[in-house]
Structures are given as structure tokens and as C-alpha cells.
């Protein structure tokens, strides 16, 4: 019984830490107009308030996962929470665009440290397929709800106090999460730095990702000419250098063997399209509600509440049962179809739209995200051996953050290109184009799911009993 309680406490801590970090990734979206007014951001610079966070997060995840192997996962988790909390305070005290963007990068670095070890710890703590499915559903629940709930809290805090408080609230939350982690998470012994860390690989993948997103963001100002092509080629060269480094390094940051499993690389491709569509949707729908429908920040956040509620109910009470009965692939495709239907509805939102008619059905259908993430996470981790759990977790989280960053950058650029002015009508036309692009990404995810992912996967290797006892006893 003590073991069950210890594992439940560990899962609760990991979910709470993930909730705080993912919530912070979305909490800024409804506060962006207020930040723009107060700090003097340009439209292109404003996207870096979001992208600065997710790019640092996504680019450092693989290196952070390796660091967890070297010094111990609990130590890395606690260190990440500490960095994240300190950076949140810096964000809340920011007095200019440069300070805020730099602090958001630091937040992303802290989030990478704590998130990189989460899925790996769950995979180890819950080796049986049925209990792992339930644990992953709970973990996905926190992510799905955090993404939607962040917009609700962001609106309320921005209107009631100011946008600064969407960051300052993390100070007490971060302190509580760090103390709980020391109490409940297993104190694993790391391999030691003598085992090696691929710092060069981390630099290559981080810089390549950042340059790739910058390439997309700057197209709004410079178009798709020689400059953009040169930047894109530089990004691809850095990513190519990372892949070459993984082939030749004695201790690679991401051993390429972990991608041999069809469901591992397939799930990551699906997730890339999914998160690009979903994060782009969050930014675009918030801008549509505020710039076209003239909602304030609180109204925008509350308008997103049905999506948060639908995600909560589906991911916590429905997804695990459906996955057990029908398999993760069928549940994944169903959830993606619901999300696609929601994006197609958005392509027709009018300038004088009404919430009950034009937005509420979209929010309810967005509950399909609660089906997608548990199924996708299970597929992505299904082929991971215990020795590779941390690396596979890092790859999965990296794809998630890269997809989010690229989605925000690409759909923002598409919306700007599709708008021929600043009137409500012109902005709506631009948002329509962005919503069509999001629908295309989700359709691609459905095609990939049907053609690449396997219907069933072999059960993961069990953890040896002595190792499992050591993990749970702490």
C-alpha cells in the first residue's frame, strides 16, 4: 500500500510540475495585446514572447534528458523548477521587450530541465501497460487542461491585476512544487559526468531550431526571397550537422536507434503537425476574439473555458477506457477528426460572430485533444526500453515544443499575409487563411496516423524487480 501511495504522490508531483509549465506556455496568449501596448512590441517581435519560451524549451530538452541520466532525474527536475520560478519573477518585473524575451528564454530552459525527465519517470514507475495507460492519461490531462486553462487564468489575472501577475503567480507555485518533488520523487543515482554529455549536439539542435523558427517569423517583413532561403538553408545545415554528430559521437545526445520503431518516429511526426495546429489555433483564436469581436482579456479567457472543461472530462474519464477497448490508433484518429471539424468551423467565423453560434461548438469539439494526447503519448513511448525511456521522452517532448513554436510562427505569418489591412474585415480574412492552414496540418496528421502508425505495439520490457523496488521505496 505504501508503494501505491508513493507512486501516486510521484505522479501527482510530475503532473503538477507539468501543469505549471504548460500553463505558462499558453497563459501569455490572451495577455499579448496588453504586453504589446505596455512594452511597445512590434507584431513580429511579439511572437517571440511565445516563441522564446517554446524554442528554448524544445531545443534544450534532449540535452536536459541526458543531464537527468548523468546527475539523477529528481535533481534535474528540482533544478528546472528553480530556474523556471526565478525566470518567472524576471518576466513579471520586465520593463521592456528585450528583458521579457530574455526571461522567457530562461523560463523555457527551466521548463526543459523539469519536463525532460517526466515521461521517463512515469514509464519506469508504471511498467504494466494498463496502469501506464492510466498514468499517461492523467499526465496528458494536465497538459491538455493546462493549455486551455492558461488562457482563462491569463485573462482573469490580466484584467483584475495586470499581465505581470501571470508570471509572478509562479513564485509560490514553484516553491511548493520543488518541496513536493523532494518529498515524493525517487532519488535516483545518476551515471555521473564521466559517462559523457553531447554538448555539441545540444548546441547544434538548439541553434538549428531557433534559426528555423526565426526564418518563418521574419517572412512577414522580408518575404520568401534570398534572405529567407539562406536562413532556411542555414537551419537545415545545423540540423543536418546534429544528425551527423549523432552518428559519429561516442555518447550521442539522441542515439538514432531509438527512432527505428515505426510508432516512435510516426507518433513524433503526427505530434509535430498536431501541436503546430493547436498552438497556432490558441494564438489566432485569442487574437480574433480580441481584435475582431472586441473581447477583453477576461472575456477571451472565459470563452476558452468550455474547451478546458471538455479536455478535462475527455482526457481524465474517457480516453483511458477507449484506448483500452479500441486501441490507441483508433482513438487518436477519432480525436484528430474532431479537432479537424473544429478548425473547419473556424474558417467561416464572421466579423460580427456570436459566441454561442460561432465559437461554442468549436470549443466543445476541441475536447478531441483529450483523446489525442493520451493515445499519441502511449504510441510514442510504446517501443521504449527502460534504458531508452529518458531519450524517447526527450525526443517526444522536443517534437512537441518544436511543433508548437513552428505553428505559432507559421500561422501568424500566414494570417498576416492573408490580411490586406488592419480593419476588422481584413483581419478576419487573415485569420480565415490561418484556420485553413491549421485544418491542413490536422488533415496531414490523420493521413500519417492511418498510413504510418501500427494498430498495436509490443508491450515494453518490464523493469527488473530490484530496480522497481528501489524507485518506489523512496
TrEMBL record:
SUPFAM superfamilies: MFS general substrate transporter. Keywords: Cell membrane, Membrane, Transmembrane, Transmembrane helix, Transport. This is MFS transporter. It comes from Actinomadura gamaensis. Its main location: membrane. Residues 10-457 form the Major facilitator superfamily (MFS) profile domain. Gene3D superfamilies: MFS general substrate transporter like domains, Multidrug resistance protein D. The chain crosses the membrane at residues 12-34, 46-64, 76-95, 101-126, 138-157, 163-185, 197-217, 229-248, 269-289, 301-323, 330-347, 359-381, 402-419, 431-453.
Amino acid at each position: 500500500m505504501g508503494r501505491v501511495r508513493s507512486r501516486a504522490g510521484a505522479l501527482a508531483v510530475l503532473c503538477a510540475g507539468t501543469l505549471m509549465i504548460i500553463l505558462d506556455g499558453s497563459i501569455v496568449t490572451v495577455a499579448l495585446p496588453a504586453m504589446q501596448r505596455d512594452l511597445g512590441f512590434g507584431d513580429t517581435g511579439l511572437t517571440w514572447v511565445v516563441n522564446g519560451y517554446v524554442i528554448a524549451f524544445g531545443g534544450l530538452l534532449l540535452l536536459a534528458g541526458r543531464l537527468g541520466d548523468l546527475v539523477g532525474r529528481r535533481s534535474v527536475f528540482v533544478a528546472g523548477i528553480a530556474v523556471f520560478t526565478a525566470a518567472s519573477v524576471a518576466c513579471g518585473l520586465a520593463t521592456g521587450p528585450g528583458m521579457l524575451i530574455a526571461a522567457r528564454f530562461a523560463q523555457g530552459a527551466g521548463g526543459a530541465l523539469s519536463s525532460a525527465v517526466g515521461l521517463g519517470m512515469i514509464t519506469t514507475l508504471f511498467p504494466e501497460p494498463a496502469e501506464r495507460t492510466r498514468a499517461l492519461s492523467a499526465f496528458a490531462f494536465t497538459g491538455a487542461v493546462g493549455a486551455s486553462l492558461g488562457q482563462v487564468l491569463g485573462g482573469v489575472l490580466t484584467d483584475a491585476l495586470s499581465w505581470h501577475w501571470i508570471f509572478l503567480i509562479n513564485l509560490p507555485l514553484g516553491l511548493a512544487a520543488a518541496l513536493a518533488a523532494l518529498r515524493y520523487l525517487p532519488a535516483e543515482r545518476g551515471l555521473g559526468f564521466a559517462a559523457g554529455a553531447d554538448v555539441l549536439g545540444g548546441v547544434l539542435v538548439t541553434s538549428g531550431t531557433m534559426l528555423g523558427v526565426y526564418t518563418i517569423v521574419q517572412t512577414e517583413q522580408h518575404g520568401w526571397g534570398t534572405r529567407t532561403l539562406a536562413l532556411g538553408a542555414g537551419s537545415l545545415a545545423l540540423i543536418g550537422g546534429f544528425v551527423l554528430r549523432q552518428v559519429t559521437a561516442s555518447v550521442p545526445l539522441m542515439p538514432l536507434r531509438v527512432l527505428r520503431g515505426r510508432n516512435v518516429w510516426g507518433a513524433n511526426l503526427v505530434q509535430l503537425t498536431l501541436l503546430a495546429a493547436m498552438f497556432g489555433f490558441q494564438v489566432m483564436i485569442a487574437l480574433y476574439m480580441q481584435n475582431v469581436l472586441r473581447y477583453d482579456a477576461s472575456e477571451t479567457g472565459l470563452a476558452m473555458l468550455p474547451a478546458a472543461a471538455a479536455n478535462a472530462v475527455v482526457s481524465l474519464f474517457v480516453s483511458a477506457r477507449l484506448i483500452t477497448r479500441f486501441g490507441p490508433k483508433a482513438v487518436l484518429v477519432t480525436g484528430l477528426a474532431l479537432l479537424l471539424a473544429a478548425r473547419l468551423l473556424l474558417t467561416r467565423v464572421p466579423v460580427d460572430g456570436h459566441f454561442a453560434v460561432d465559437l461554442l461548438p468549436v470549443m466543445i469539439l476541441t475536447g478531441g485533444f483529450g483523446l489525442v494526447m493520451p493515445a499519441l503519448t502511449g504510441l510514442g513511448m510504446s517501443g521504449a526500453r527502460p534504458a531508452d525511456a529518458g531519450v524517447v521522452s526527450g525526443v517526444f517532448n522536443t517534437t512537441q515544443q518544436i511543433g508548437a513554436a513552428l505553428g505559432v510562427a507559421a500561422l501568424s505569418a500566414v494570417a498576416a499575409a492573408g490580411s490586406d489591412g488592419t480593419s476588422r474585415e481584413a483581419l478576419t480574412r487573415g485569420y480565415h487563411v490561418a484556420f485553413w492552414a491549421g485544418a491542413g496540418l490536422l488533415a496531414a496528421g490523420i493521413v500519417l496516423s492511418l498510413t504510418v502508425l501500427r494498430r498495436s505495439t509490443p508491450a515494453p520490457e518490464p523493469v527488473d524487480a530490484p530496480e522497481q523496488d528501489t524507485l518506489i521505496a523512496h
